[in-house]
Amino acid sequence: MSHAKFATLAGSALALAFLTATPALAQNTPAPGQAPDEAAASGRIANGQERDRWSRRGRQRTGPSPEEIMAEASAVAAVAVPTCQVTESSLLGQREDETKLYEVACATGPGYILVAVEGAPTAADCVLQSSLAWQLRQENPEADVGLQCALPGNQNRVQVISAYGQQAGVSCETDEAVAWNTTVYEVGCAGADGYRLEKSETGWSAMPCWRYALIASDTCKLSTAEENRMEWPKLVANTEIAACNIEDVAWMGDNPERGAFYELKCSTGEGVIVRFHEGATQQVYSCVDAVQIFSKPCSLTAVPASTEPEAAPAE
């Protein structure tokens, strides 16, 4: 797992990850003056009735009630993350300038840590915070991962990212999931190839990890090379080359309208090119024709030199 990935997510989340929570509120002081013990020492508590009155005041709560915290946090969330319907809340503390920090869980999607800046509250995604912690602990199990969301409803990184995948058409049984940055996520599937998810203005899209490994200079981190290879047979299923036992695959390019082109090396030594579109191979080409059709030769198999006689030079 590369440090570059850590840096990408860290840039968006570390600013909040190491916030220090301070005691939520200073203790209320009974009005109009001294505390009960101070009043007793000066003789101002003269009888049992007065003593009982101070005692009742001394037992007053020292901070907002859970209901008040819910109301305050919900009001902040309504501005910072209007899509969040708050189901749980907690007051984490406040800064020296009395700006309060809340954690909220939402009915759907991720929860948030809210910084209640007057007029411009901000929100940090709990799934991103959890993903950063996961990444750091992959390198160092003892890493200090800073402030993490603690509400029961926010221990749901895998479930939230799995739901993103479902929006992109992914239907596998998710066994792990992580965010690499604010727009790129990954889903690992139990015993199968996983997916790389990307968020755009139009929604979520998913790329199988076997394809990502071919077209990028990187690989998915939650899927193995063996799980990638398990998907290769679909490239020859229900075609005239269905008997091809694929030893290797190379990506040759994409056409927006016609699909993706892959070179396959069969265990027999034969090399072919397939046009893969909408989940199935639509056409098969011989590597012999690769240069003529694709302007480049196959790279996984050697094509015998032409046996046709060369044309005689013009006199």
Relevant terms:
four-stranded antiparallel beta sheet; 12 strands; 28% helix; alpha+beta; elongated; disordered N terminus; 315 residues
What can you see in these coordinates?
This protein has helices spanning 3-17, 36-41, 48-58, 66-80, 126-139, 157-167, 209-215, 225-229, 290-294, and strands spanning 86-94, 100-106, 112-115, 122-125, 174-179, 184-189, 192-200, 203-208, 246-255, 259-266, 271-277, 280-286. The chain is an alpha+beta fold and 315 residues long. The strands form three sheets. Strands 1-2-3-4 form a four-stranded antiparallel beta sheet. Strands 5-6-7-8 form a four-stranded antiparallel beta sheet. Strand 6 and strand 7 (192-200) form a beta hairpin. The chain is elongated and about 85 Å long.
Category from helices, strands and their pairing: alpha+beta
Anisotropy-based shape: elongated
What about the largest sheet? Answer: 4 strands, antiparallel
Poorly predicted runs are: 1-8, 10-60, 307-315
Q: What is the overall number of helices?
A: 9
Residue share in helices? 25-40%
Beta-strand level of the residues, as a percent range?
25-35%
Sketch the topology as an H/E string, one letter per element.
Answer: HHHHEEEEHHEEEEHHEEEEH
Output the strand order for the largest sheet. 1-2-3-4
User: C-alpha Rg, in Å?
Assistant: 31 Å
End-to-end span in angstroms? 63 Å
According to DSSP, the number of beta strands is 12
Mean pLDDT: 83
